[in-house]
Structure prediction request, 341 residues.
Amino acid sequence: GAGGVLLLRAIQRAQAKFVDETERMNRLEFAPAQHDVFFRDVSASLEGLERAKSAVRAMGKYVPMDLVRRLYLAKSEPVLGGEMVDVSIMFTDIKGFTTISEQLSPNELAGALGRYLEVMARIIQDECQGTIDKYIGDAIMTIWNAPSPVAQHATMACRAALKCLAAGERLSTSPEWRGIPPFVTRFGLHRDRAMVGHYGSPNRMNYTAIGDGVNLASRLEGLNKQYGTSIMASETIREAAGGEFAFRLLDVVAVKGKSQGVKVYELVGFSSELTTGRRESIAAYERAFDLYRSRDFKAALAIFESLRDDEPSRVLAERCRTLLATPPQHGWSGVFESTEK
Prediction:
């Protein structure tokens, strides 16, 4: 009788462990667990659950974990197709990465890039609720508000850009960087409606966002090269982000492949951290830009030249000199046509 009671208790403990593991999976908890079960059938079932959890964790390294959880709960497989979603989009890129990579051994490059992307991903995903769409070499494409809703997603995108910029600077000056050339990151931010879903072939697909808005975010990142800035943002981002951030109107640009001009802004920083001198220089630049748009190139040039340490001011000053030497035709709109990606 005593032996029967002990056996029954052992069976109950084994059954409880199995039920507990299945409930953990139903709660979308996929962390590994150790099991020591006497009964072979129960032990084999628990090992099967551990293999399933390992597969789910592995999927989370290739596609957004929120998407994995949604598919798990729905007991469905991804199918081709998508939906229109209001998203904020961020593209990042490392300035002069090709030149830096030529100075490093393959292992040095892999280690540095891995550490950099780890820091960026932690800020984007854990601190700012972003979904990393993909890594493109040293570049990162991120979306907000898909696959899960994100409140104030334009604000989150701006926070991510500023935090990533600061974190990259700290990383490049830290002892662990060991003399490797610094990784200087550039960012492009835009908010728009985009097609978000599963695209590719029936047997191999990606969860991604596509559309003109995605292309514009990528173009904005590239525009930083021409103005010497770090974070370029669209008007829709500026309008949605609110007063937490300081922006300056840089230019009206028709990006490569587009004939329509759009206002582009520099995300300067958090409003609360801006010095009085910086606010005054932003206001001076925007006054000069208004003069430039109204064709008063001489007055605009005088202000741009007074902002000696400001790279966008040098760019616009040179443009004013060109227009003074060769005045634009009647009907000039002030839209700068960018021919670079």
Q: What stands out?
A: The first helix runs from residue 2 to 26.
